[in-house]
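During the no-cost extension, the postdoctoral fellow (Dr. R.K.) reprocessed legacy sequence entries with the updated structure-token encoder. One reprocessed record is reproduced below for audit purposes.
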Amino acid sequence: MSTTTSEIRDASSSLYRIELLKEDNWLPWKRRVTGVLRERRLLKYALVTARETEISEWEDNDARAQTQIELTLSDPQMIHIAGAKTAAEMWTQLKTVKEPRGTMGIIS
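Re-encoded structure tokens follow.
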């Protein structure tokens, strides 16, 4: 029995062994989740919004992208996506909390 590309894209994140996001693993977590979202053609839903003509498809795929992100967060990290209504909002909120800013942030 062969697996089609669409089956792979639709598979749950359990096919990947991605460590849950914790206080100290943002960069490797981000890299891995970016790869999963990209492979499943969902990355654009975490990074940008869709045009009006694509709203229905966008909503379906945004929901899938949200699920991929949610399934890779540890319980204490879920607070960082509270209130987010889209995958892009989740991603932005996580980046705001996790990515170093300025010279001192990069050094630490």
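The helical segments are 5-10, 26-39, 43-47, 55-70, 87-98, 102-107. The CA atoms of residues 42 and 65 lie 6 Å apart. The remaining legacy entries will be reprocessed before the final report is submitted.
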